[in-house]
Amino acid sequence: MRRLFLIAISLIFTLAATGNALAAAERRVALVIGNNDYQNITKLEKAVNDANSVARELKKIGFEVMAYNNVGQKKMNLAVNEFVQKISGGGIGIFFFAGHGLQVNNQNFLVPVDMDSPRSENDLADQAVSVLAIQDKIADAKAKFTLLVLDACRDNPLPKKSGTRSIGATRGLAPPQAPNGQVVLYSAGANQQALDKLGDNDNNPNGLFTREFLPSITQPGISATDAMRRVRSTVTQKAKSVGHDQQPALYEQTDGDFYFVAGPATAPTPAGSPTTVVQTVDPKAVELAFWDSIKNSNSPEDYSDYLSKYPDGQFSALAKRRLGTTNSTATRGGDSPAAAPAPTQVALSQPRPVPETGPSIASKIEELGKMVSLKVSDLRATRRDNLLRIQVEITNTSSSNQQLYYRFKWLDRDGFSVWDDEPWKPLLVYGQQKQLINVVGPTFKATDFRLILQSPNNISN
Fold first, then answer.
1. I want to staple 289 with a disulfide (CB 3.0 to 4.6 A). Which of 187, 222, 240, 390 is the partner?
2. Which stretches of sequence are listed as region Disordered (predicted)?
């Protein structure tokens, strides 16, 4: 899961006056599915409640909602096709699914209520609904913005027969993939289980993820990506409070931001153009909304994200203190910390030593196996606000899509680790295309790094 750097400063809609043009440009459609009553596998309790609650909130903020409960495979596929048709050519779409999900060979599937107990993984794939297939259909529709929310990270519901191996992973879904123009949010990270309740006395009709998701989509002036980041942060904290590991997985490939509810500021209609409507969002209100979403977080990631967007923001000093980046925090025993190495911007095509750091920057790449079709075509590292900032360009030289997993090791000047090992993050690189990885170091102590890469298509060294 890469860091999200895109935060909108303002959002301006200038639309033609005709109703047809407005509908074409801003049609908002949501497909919401909740499956409880599985016929041949474990039933669920709160999936339908979760879906119904989401459908109600989306209707309130102007979405045309296609709501379905307890649907089979055929109806799910038909609903997806209708949804895709409605958002084609510039529409805005939200797909929300609550129910059972399974991963097979790193591919994720949503389970319809009429699925039989499969005899093999191929049988399961034939009876379930492929998440990747849904994403491909949405990508082909060329919608303006799409958000996929999957609350399907539960224990494997399929019974294990004696003497055989399990069909599908034991729990959870594989890391998400996000084609260009899509934001994807899973209710839990890879191989994690999503909680329905926080304890025996928790009588909330919604699961933990949905109850945090609902308020995020109705807050004015906060972008979808920042709203989803808020969901991730609050769910993670509340799950930890009961000793459970659940960190929603967020991944996005968008070139701009979408707002569920625009900010309150509305510009006056220009003279002579009474049919033109312009809406703006107060930048300070956007920044405040973002800060409010992370101010109680215990995650350094959140404060690094804030500083990357607002290096001179209203709360930058406080964010730095919480990261431990102020001089008073960095000073130990009255001594000033060692000077940070000079910023570097080095292309891997012409590797050279990083000033005063010893090894060449090419040595900062570690491949688990040899990558065949993927390569690091450029890597740049610099330092700002006392934090490392890294940009990596990955190129796919083949004509087929390639899956890559990556993570960073954060080191001090002597090569010792200064941060816990990160989870693997997914990156889907389309055929003959390039993708960027943008990362901010989690602590001022990190003055060096290693980028570790692996791909299912790697070959042994």
1. 222
2. 326-358
Question: Do 139 and 182 touch, CB atoms closer than 8 A?
Answer: yes
How far apart, in Å, are the Cα atoms of 265 and each of 10, 12, 92, 378? 10, 11, 22, 41
Distance CA 391, CA 373 (A): 20
The pTM for the full model equals 0.54
In this structure, what token pair is assigned to residue 433?
A: 């295309």
Question: Cα separation of 74 and 325, whole Å?
Answer: 55
CA distance 115 to 25: 38
3-state secondary structure 246-269: CCCEEEECCCCCCECCCCCCECCC
**For residues 116, 117, 121 and 127, what is the CA-based torsion angle, rounded to 10 degrees?**
10
Question: What is the torsional sign of CA 34, 37, 39, 41?
Answer: positive
pLDDT digits (tens, 9 = 90+) for 264-276: 543 333 444 333 3
| DSSP state letter for 270 | P
Q: What is the pLDDT of residue 61?
A: 86
Distinct helix (H) and strand (E) counts, the chain: 11, 16
Contacts of 160 (CB under 8 A, 6+ apart): 166
H or E element that contains 279: none
- Report the distance separating Cα 158 and Cα 170, nearest Å: 9
Contact 457, 373 (CB under 8 A): yes
Domains of the chain: 19-281 (3.40.50.1460), 361-454 (2.60.40.3230)
- 444-to-96, 349, 383 alpha-carbon distances in Å: 38, 28, 10
Would you state the pLDDT for residue 74? 95
Please enumerate in sequence order all residues whose Cβ is within 8 A of that of 343, keeping only pairs 6 or more positions apart, or say none: 381, 382, 383, 384
Look at the block and give the residue holding tokens 């993708």.
435
